[in-house]
Amino acid sequence: PSTTTMKKILTIILTFTGLIIGKIIASAVVEAIKHDHKTAPAQRPAAILASEANRKQLLQELNAQLPMMIDEVTRFNKTDLTADGFIYYYQFPTLTAADISASAWQEQTQNITKGLCGNAKPRPLLDDNVSYTYHYADKNGQNIFSLTVHKADCP
Predict the structure, then answer these.
(1) Three state DSSP letters for the chain
(2) What pLDDT does 37 receive?
(3) I want to staple 87 with a disulfide (CB 3.0 to 4.6 A). Which of 9, 16, 27, 133 is the partner?
(4) CB-count exposure of residue 151 (10 Å: 0-12, 13-18, 19+)
(5) Bigger pLDDT: 133 or 7?
(6) Among positive and negative, which fits the CA dihedral 122, 124, 113, 145?
């Protein structure tokens, strides 16, 4: 396939990947928060994430099956979690920065932000000032794109 075709395919894959993984992880957090609500007084999501013990337990669950290929070109390597929010690490094991157009990253930024802000599962976390950060690396492990979505980025 031509370079243009590959870039279009990659744009579609990036969009799909970002939205699906964001929803999966947000679902896991919501379930963890529900579990904590059953055993403790109600807390806001950010308060639950502020606990190092809670973050450690959630990270073990989220990273248990990582790294894993999530499509033909993207490997989801790991998730980190700070008191500020989630940090996702992806890698393109067969691509370099030159293989991905700037417009693909612009579209990815818009799609991830729209997907997180418009989804009922991650939105309560965003509203409680929990951020979502995405890092993408090329086949050499060099960071080629990063994005952080905050509450202020949502309409």
Answers:
(1) CCHHHHHHHHHHHHHHHHHHHHHHHHHHHHHHHHHHHHHCCCCCHHHHHHCHHHHHHHHHHHHCCCCEECCCCCEEEEEEECCCEEEEEEECCCCCHHHCCHHHHHHHHHHHHHHHHCCCCCHHHHHCCCEEEEEEECCCCCEEEEEEECHHHCC
(2) 47
(3) 133
(4) middle
(5) 133
(6) negative
Residue 136 has pLDDT above 50, yes or no: yes
How much is the average pLDDT of 20-39? Answer: 54
100: tokens are 């991905």
Q: Assess whether pLDDT exceeds 70 at residue 68.
A: yes
Cβ neighbour number for residue 141 with a 10 Å cutoff: 9
